[in-house]
Amino acid sequence: MTDPGNSTLGPPVGRPMQVVARGEVWDAVRADLAAYGTAVVHADLADLEPDLPTGDELRALLGRDWSRYLDLAHPEVRHRYAASRVLLKLAAGAVLNGDPNALELAYGPTGRPYLRGCDQVDISLSHTDDLLLVGITTRGLIGVDAERADRPMYQRGLGRHVCTPYELVTLAAQPEEERNPALVRLWTLKEAYSKAIGQGMQFSFTEFGFGPDGRPVRVQRPDGSTGTGDEWGFHTFVLDSGYCISVAVYDAGFGTIGDMDMTTMLDQDCVDAIEGALRNGGGGRRA
Amino acid sequence: MRETDSLEAFLQLVGEELDLAVGAGDADRDLADLPGWDSMNLLRLVTLLEAETGRRLPVHAVLEARSLAEIHSVLERQA
Hints:
The complex is a heterodimer.
Chain A: E1 17-19, H1 26-36, E2 38-44, H2 45-48, H3 55-62, H4 65-71, H5 75-95, E3 105-107, E4 113-115, E5 122-128, E6 131-137, E7 140-148, H6 159-162, H7 165-172, H8 176-196, E8 209-210, E9 219-220, E10 232-238, E11 243-251, H9 268-281
Parallel strand pairs in A: 1-2
Antiparallel strand pairs in A: 2-6, 3-4, 5-6, 7-11, 8-9, 10-11
Chain B: H1 7-17, H2 39-53, H3 59-64, H4 68-77
């Protein structure tokens, strides 16, 4: 499998960076965001343990997610839920130069997460086993997904629910030992793309696909013809720990942003509107 | 072919085939609250049930299910 996932199409993405307890990775994350407009971090649940707050501190950090956290009955699920939000807020707080507790994680109609009031960045979350994964971009949209590269997937009948006809043919043509990791790669790419566009699995995975590894990666129609252009970047990485990570980034033309600080960065259209109103209206109250 | 008519047998099949710790108390639990559950497990389960029953399942109906009991209901409606 190609690694690093340096498809030549679309916005570039640096190799995912590992976060360890009280680690000093955030300067590197900010550097990736400045260089690429995108940064991806991952953490092992156990490595993040010392950074996980408890009690009132956790409640403050989770904010509106606190009630959802309490609704989760199983300790393991609850713990991972909290840890993924902590990693996201630590990462977002670092790149936005803000207090993680002041960041409010909200969800769109399809469950897609976003940082309320911080539309200069888009975020995506994923976890599998003990791996937590967070993607942040200033370019437009991002989706990330992770899976163990050796998770058994290539089995009778499953491909029909996951692959396009073109992908099924392409997979079958590969050596047997390469089919499973190839399908895991396709799966994570599809999950990442679906998350980026906010659709989840309701957007049938058999209606869009990707080509084989080692070529520029783009979305393809079921027959294998081209579906997206170079506004989308797709990248797959395999970590030493054996996880396959895919990242989908949509470049809306915002590029990289110099000032990411959440306390000083203002939307220019908003600034213009306020300045115009002040010039024209003199600050008078509406009746 | 294995019996999946009863909810208990269905839960047993889910636990054994997907290697998940699933008990009777988990039938109505939100899928997001099941340890080890994820979207790939969902599709593996659909594939497994199709093999067990010899019928194709409406994937969209399964995707809308919020618990294992709801997935079992989809299965029952297809019987």
